[in-house]
From TrEMBL:
<dbReference type="InterPro" id="IPR000182">
    <property type="entry name" value="GNAT_dom"/>
</dbReference>
<dbReference type="InterPro" id="IPR016181">
    <property type="entry name" value="Acyl_CoA_acyltransferase"/>
</dbReference>
<keyword id="KW-0808">Transferase</keyword>
<keyword id="KW-0012">Acyltransferase</keyword>
<dbReference type="Pfam" id="PF13302">
    <property type="entry name" value="Acetyltransf_3"/>
</dbReference>
<dbReference type="GO" id="GO:0008080">
    <property type="term" value="F:N-acetyltransferase activity"/>
</dbReference>
<comment type="similarity">
    <text>Belongs to the acetyltransferase family. GNAT subfamily.</text>
</comment>
<protein>
    <recommendedName>
        <fullName>N-acetyltransferase domain-containing protein</fullName>
    </recommendedName>
</protein>
<feature type="domain" description="N-acetyltransferase">
    <location>
        <begin position="14"/>
        <end position="158"/>
    </location>
</feature>
<dbReference type="InterPro" id="IPR039135">
    <property type="entry name" value="NAT9-like"/>
</dbReference>
């Protein structure tokens, strides 16, 4: 998270902010949900372990983590914790043909699902990864049970690279070329990258 530690991205319906200490308790409550852990292939942690994980991510140069805020709630309340609806990550991996970004996201609050917010989050974080980090290829490893995520990535022109029946996962990929970069820009008309305070 070192790369985006002081970066906020404001979109149309959502705002992406760095994962701060103040977010941990609500994030931990989300991850108490067994279905969310299953969909995101996450382990159950204690609250103490969650705080430790936040600090680990904070200092990780290969992990870019944002908390997703509902923009409308944030404008009304100016309260990040109350506005939290999910998270988004890009895990960076070196490859022979450039930097690969493994993208993952969740909309944890049920009432905000099915409203196009996950798609907007994916577009915003990929635009950031392409312009600020120079990612050359995206990879999404998705649970075979998560049909909505698979459909979303397919709609973003990701292609199936592999499928594991043992792990019950599918790997979808998208090469970053001029066409895809233009697509990201044309589908993120409202994109403002701003400075923000870190880790509070």
């Amino acid at each position: 998270m070192r790369l985006n530690i002081s970066t906020k991205i404001v979109g149309n319906k959502v705002i992406l902010v760095p994962y701060r200490i103040s977010h941990v308790e609500k994030y931990h409550k989300w991850m108490e949900d067994e279905d969310l852990r299953l969909q995101t292939a996450s382990d159950r942690l204690t609250l103490h372990e969650e705080y430790e994980m936040q600090q680990t991510w904070l200092n990780d140069v290969k992990k870019c983590t944002f908390i997703v805020l509902d923009k409308e709630t944030m404008l009304e309340t100016n309260d990040e914790v109350e506005s939290m609806i999910g998270d988004a990550n890009v895990y960076l991996k070196d490859s022979y043909d450039g930097l690969v970004g493994e993208i993952g996201l969740m909309i944890a609050e049920p009432k905000f699902r099915g409203k196009g917010m996950g798609r907007e989050v994916a577009l915003l974080i990929m635009r950031y990864a392409v312009t600020a980090i120079k990612v050359k290829k995206f990879e999404a490893i998705v649970s075979l049970n998560n049909e909505n995520s698979i459909k979303m990535f397919n709609s973003l022109n990701f292609q199936e690279e592999s499928k594991s029946t043992f792990f019950k996962e599918i790997t979808l990929v998208r090469q970053v070329d001029e066409e895809f970069t233009d697509y990201l820009f044309s589908n993120t008309k409202e994109y403002n990258e701003l400075p923000t305070e870190e880790n509070k």
